[in-house]
Structure formats: C-alpha cells, structure tokens
Q: What sequence folds into this?
C-alpha cells in the first residue's frame, strides 16, 4: 500500500535498529477519507489490542499537536498564506479543470474563497461533503481532543501549568526570567519531568511575504527538559536575538508518563541587554601565538578575566579565525584576574610548556593564519565580545621566531585590539601562556651576538666555539656571565632547540655564508633581563 512508509533507523552500536511505520498520504492521516482515515500506521499502534506505551506517547503527542499546531491562529494563517500564494493562477487552474473534456478529467471545487472557508470549517467548526463522513461540531480540532483524552487521559493528566514573566520590563536579552507554580496532579501522581520550550514566531498581523518564511512556534528554537523540578527559568542569552519575537511555554509529566497540556504562552519581543554581560565587559584576548617556532601545533590563544568577579564562559565562543566553544569545555567558569588558554594541539603544547598550573579549556579547530587574519570572540547567538584583525607585519619577531604578541593594556577599549600600537612582543621566548607577561626589562641584545658588537658575524661563531671548547672562554654578557642564565641561553641557542652546543655555531655560519635560516629568535634587537645594551632597537 502506498499509504504507509517505512524507515529503518540504524544503530551505530550494532547491525540492528528500529523500524518506523509512517503515514504516506496526508489525506489518509486526518480524514475524512477512505476508512475515515484509519490506515496501517494507526494499526501499528492500536492493532491487536494495542501497545500501552505507544498509545500513551500517541496521546501525549496529540495534546502537543493540538496545543501548538492545530489552532485557529496557526492553521487559519497557514491557509490564508497559501491562498495568497496561489490566488493569481487559481482562477486559470479552476477553468482548466471545470471546462476540460470528460475523458481528460473534470472537477470543480468552486471559487478559492469558498475552498478557504470550507477548510476552516473542516478544521474548527464542522463539515459535511461528498468525499467522506461528516465532521461534527468543533471540527477536526474536537476530534483530536477526543483522541488525546481517550482511555481516561481527560481527567488523569497533570494540571496544566501557568507561566509568568518575572524579568525587567521590555524583555532585555540578558534578563529573560520566567516562573511557574508547583507541580499539581489531580490523582496525586508524582512529578517525573518538566519541559520548557521557546518558539520564534512572526508577529500577528504581519502581511504575507512570499520571500520570507512565516515563523510559528513549531519547531522549538530552544528546549530544556529536566527530571528536577525548578519553578524558575532564565533563558540563555544564546537562545534569543534582539528584535525577534518569541513565545515561552512549559509542560509537566507525572510518573505514569502522562504529559500535561502546554501552558499558556508568554509572547515577547527581545530588546537590547540592559547592560553588557560580565563576559562581554571582562573577557579579553591577551596573547596570540599565531606562528610559533617549529610546528603549528604550538599555537595558542590566551584570554583573561579582567573583571572583579568570576564569569560564566559557557556562552562564549570564537566565531572567526578558529572554531571553539567554551560550552562543555574543561573551563566554563573563570575567576577574577585568571587566565585561560585554548590551544591547537594539547600534547604538543604540553611538550613545550609546564602546564601544571595552567587552565586549558581545550583544543580548537582550524588554525591561526601566519599572515594575519580576523579573530572574533562572541557571546550568545550574535553578541560580539571582541573582533579584530592582526597582521604578521606588525611584529616580524612574532612571525615564526618563537615570540608571541601580547596586548599592552587589557582594560583598553576593544577597538584598540585592531591597532599594532596596542600590542608588543612577549618578554619571554615562546611567550608566557597562562600568566602575566611582564613588560620586558634589561638590555637590548641581538640574538646570537656573543661578541657584543651589535651585529652578527663570524666572530660570534668563534666566541660560541670558545664557550664550548676553549680553555678560557670569553665571559658571557648577561647576569655576570652565568652560563645557565635564561638570557645567556637565549643568546647561545641560535637554532632554537633549547640547547647550547656545536650545532648553534654551525647554524650561525650557515646563516651568514650559505643563505641558511635566521636565528630562532629573529634578527631584531630584544630586551633580555640582566643584560647590557649591545644594539640599538
């Protein structure tokens, strides 16, 4: 029969799944039609005495369908919109069928306005005609109610809850609060679940627009179901957009698996937030390692809570540059003043840095462009926290040499993030992820310049070899010549392998005389602690 369809829902865990029986012809779903609309799909639920669990789900769904879809405000509007769409050509179509030759088929349902009224009477008033049994008073809406109320559900479902708005006037996007009363069941059945729903709608009275889909409550824009009863709902900022119109409802379920009717609808149009959310005013990007020394897996972005209290990160996410959401991440709350990191490759990152005291939210998808790109951090569905574009030409020292870019003033206006003057090079090789990057102090030094003449030449390679193999090496320039001091190591480690050995001298000679790669920390002057000034920045 073509009046049913089959769908096999696979199960990833096995070779088995679920077989769904679904209606095919919509006219056989609602009637009146052949056999009063009773077909195979209904037999799957009610045949041979029926299946109690399926029948209860069926009645629950019919209640929901009647509450949210089969209503005069929804169906009559849908019929009117369809009529608007076909009005111009419907007259020609009618003429073709009522005036056609008998052998080609001939039919006449009357004028379009007559058919519109006929459909509305069928749905909500009552109907009779030649194509099926009569529909009694109340239309098919009453029929749906009778089906939903069968087997005692009319008096045995939980009492319909009520929703009341409890937030500030004008429905600001960041303070949408709703309340309901305690669970109530006439049979004293126990509470089992509560479900809230948010549906976007096109405001009543909006004219038909053939190029713009009209929004009804179905499907939901956001839902929350819980087995723990709470009379208060605060809508997530990400669930709504300023200027759009929504309806909030809820329903409850008892421990016999009966859902109540959906509550009354609270309809509202979202206005701008009353004030910036703490995440928007306090969360800032403070360090970018967009082109690390070595492998791209060492990329990271550091963020800081610059505010005076902890902030909830669950609605913060990157919308440009990389793909990462803090919802469900390892860090969903950030203390005042604390730093959090998102990294390209966590194992690679941990091989270079001591992560024991770092907050790492997780790995992001995508990569930061070595040439510069737009980076945007957003909140909720459409609110921007910070949006800027960096350029690798701002600081050549951050372009593959092992230094990062650090924001100078995290409390500055967010527009300044797009300006090179708002950034500086990190004070430490490989950056300072997860901690404050102190403003560089110390003397100006050129990486590899062990002779301290302000340039790179063969003398520096000779001095390096003397440090390794000479009996009386020249004193190192920083920290009273202590070999293991980080600043001296920065000067010695020309190839960037975290060691000082013969390969550094060879690396420098290849750079000077054989077009080799430049020193790992670059060819520009850097500030190194406990060092004298040996070159002019």
A:
């Amino acid at each position: 029969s073509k009046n049913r369809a089959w769908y096999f829902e696979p199960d990833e865990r096995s070779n088995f799944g679920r077989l769904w029986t679904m209606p095919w012809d919509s006219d056989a779903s609602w009637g009146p039609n052949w056999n009063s609309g009773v077909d195979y799909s209904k037999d799957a639920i009610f045949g041979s005495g029926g299946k109690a669990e399926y029948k209860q789900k069926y009645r629950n769904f019919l209640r929901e369908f009647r509450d949210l879809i089969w209503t005069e405000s929804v169906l009559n509007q849908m019929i009117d919109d369809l009529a608007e769409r076909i009005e111009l050509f419907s007259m020609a179509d009618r003429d073709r069928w009522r005036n056609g030759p008998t052998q080609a088929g001939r039919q006449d349902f009357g004028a379009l306005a007559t058919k519109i009224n006929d459909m509305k009477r069928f749905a909500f008033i009552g109907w009779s005609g030649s194509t099926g049994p009569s529909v009694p008073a109340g239309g098919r809406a009453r029929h749906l109610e009778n089906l939903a109320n069968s087997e005692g559900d009319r008096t045995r479902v939980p009492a319909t809850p009520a929703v009341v708005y409890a937030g500030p006037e004008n429905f600001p996007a960041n303070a949408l609060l709703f309340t309901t009363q305690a669970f109530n069941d006439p049979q004293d059945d126990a509470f089992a679940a509560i479900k809230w729903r948010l549906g976007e709608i096109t405001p009543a009275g909006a004219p038909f627009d053939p190029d713009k889909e009209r929004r009804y409550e179905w499907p939901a824009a956001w839902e929350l179901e819980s087995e723990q009863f709470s009379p208060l709902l605060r809508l997530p900022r990400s669930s709504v957009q300023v200027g759009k119109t929504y309806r909030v409802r809820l329903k409850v379920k008892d421990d016999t698996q009966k859902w109540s009717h959906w509550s009354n609808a609270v309809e509202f149009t979202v206005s701008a937030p009353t004030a910036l959310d703490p995440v928007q005013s306090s969360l800032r990007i403070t360090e970018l390692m967009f082109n690390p020394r070595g492998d791209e897996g060492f990329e990271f972005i550091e963020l800081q809570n610059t505010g005076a209290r902890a902030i909830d990160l669950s609605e913060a996410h990157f919308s440009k540059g990389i793909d990462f959401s803090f919802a469900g991440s390892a860090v969903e709350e950030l203390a005042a003043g604390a730093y959090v990191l998102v990294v390209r490759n966590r194992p690679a990152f941990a091989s270079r840095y001591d992560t024991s005291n770092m907050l790492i939210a997780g790995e992001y998808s995508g990569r930061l462009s070595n040439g510069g790109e737009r980076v945007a951090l957003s909140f909720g569905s459409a609110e921007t926290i910070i949006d800027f574009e960096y350029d690798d030409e701002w600081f050549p020292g951050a372009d593959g040499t092992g230094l990062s870019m650090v924001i100078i003033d995290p409390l500055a206006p967010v527009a300044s993030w797009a300006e090179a003057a708002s950034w500086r090079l990190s004070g430490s090789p490989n950056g300072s992820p997860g901690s404050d990057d102190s403003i560089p102090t110390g003397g100006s030094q050129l990486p590899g310049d062990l002779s301290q003449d302000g340039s790179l030449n063969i003398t520096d390679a000779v001095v390096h070899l003397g440090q390794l193999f000479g009996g009386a090496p020249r004193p190192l320039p920083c920290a009273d010549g202590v070999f293991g001091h980080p600043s001296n190591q920065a000067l010695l480690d020309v190839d960037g392998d975290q060691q000082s050995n013969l390969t550094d001298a060879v690396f420098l000679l290849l750079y000077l005389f054989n077009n080799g790669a430049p020193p790992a920390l670059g060819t520009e002057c850097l500030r190194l602690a406990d060092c004298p000034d040996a070159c002019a920045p």
About this structure: The chain is about 25% helix and 20% strand. The longest strand covers residues 191-201. The mean pLDDT is 90.
